[in-house]
Specification:
By secondary structure, this protein is of the alpha/beta class. The protein is built from 8 helices and 7 strands; from the N terminus they run βαβαβαβαβαβαααβ. The chain is globular and about 55 Å long.
């Protein structure tokens, strides 16, 4: 079998959507997990004659999402795919404010979508695909904010820092196995997405770094979602992918 399986979260917009579109350009089976399906993406898959599934799942319900993925993978026959890759791209940014002024439900959602869901989906993916005896990869989309602190961003920074560290642990686990998966937590650079709009329009009194995000846009320093997606997928395809558990597309 020459078809490659790609499972991608947060694929309905932004860089996730661009990655899905680019993955569909090759001989891949692409499974997208997002809160909403994307009609244009479905039409694109039909146009290029590629296999696409879209699951409208809220990753805040991470236990349910992981169980659904495990059940689907367990129904796949061994030999169905030449390789399998999970890309944990989905994230959630709560209202930009100091921790003391944050809504508990908002914080919980950011941590469930940004950290708990990737952890559980990765566990489900690895457990179900381990008997397949094919190359497997886990790509976690991290952020520079997982590696440096920023005021009024406690939940988002914590989720990305946790993603980085669980990836380090995962790499240690998989290195002990005869056909262990390769994994990396990758910072994709600064991208012109809805999150950047939120950061630029935050109240400067609550968000001391607001001006720097305004400057990124004004100085044309933001990558387009399509360009960022191409860089991320090129990094994923590198022969040394997984050698370093923590990466940056600019490395």
């Amino acid at each position: 079998m020459t078809q490659h399986l790609y499972i991608l979260t947060g694929a309905s917009r932004g860089m996730g959507l661009a990655m899905a579109e680019q993955l569909l350009s090759a001989n891949h089976f692409v499974l997208c997990i997002s809160r909403h399906t994307n009609d244009a993406l479905a039409a694109h898959a039909v146009k290029v004659g590629r296999q696409l599934e879209q699951w409208p799942l809220d990753l805040e319900r991470s236990v349910e999402a992981a169980a659904t993925l495990a059940q689907w993978l367990n129904r796949c026959k061994t030999g169905s795919f030449a390789s399998a890759t999970l890309i944990n791209n989905a994230g959630a940014i709560p209202r930009i404010a100091p921790l003391s002024a944050s809504d508990p439900g908002d914080l919980a959602r950011a941590l469930r979508v940004g950290l708990e869901a990737p952890l559980l989906l990765t566990a489900a993916f690895l457990g179900a695909t381990e008997p397949w005896n094919i190359p497997r990869k886990v790509l976690n989309i991290s952020s520079g904010l997982g590696r440096r602190a920023m005021a009024s961003q406690a939940a988002y920074c914590a989720a990305k820092a946790g993603m980085d560290h669980f990836t380090r642990c995962l790499v240690l686990d998989e290195a002990l196995k005869p056909n262990g998966a390769k994994a990396c937590s990758l910072a994709p650079g600064v991208i012109d997405t809805d999150m950047q709009v939120q950061l630029r329009h935050a109240d400067a009194a609550d968000f001391p770094d607001q001006g720097s995000f305004v400057a990124l846009k004004a100085n044309s320093q933001l990558a387009s979602p399509a360009d960022a997606a191409a860089q991320v997928l090129a990094y994923l395809a590198r022969p040394d992918f997984g050698r370093n558990p923590i990466g940056d597309v600019r490395d």
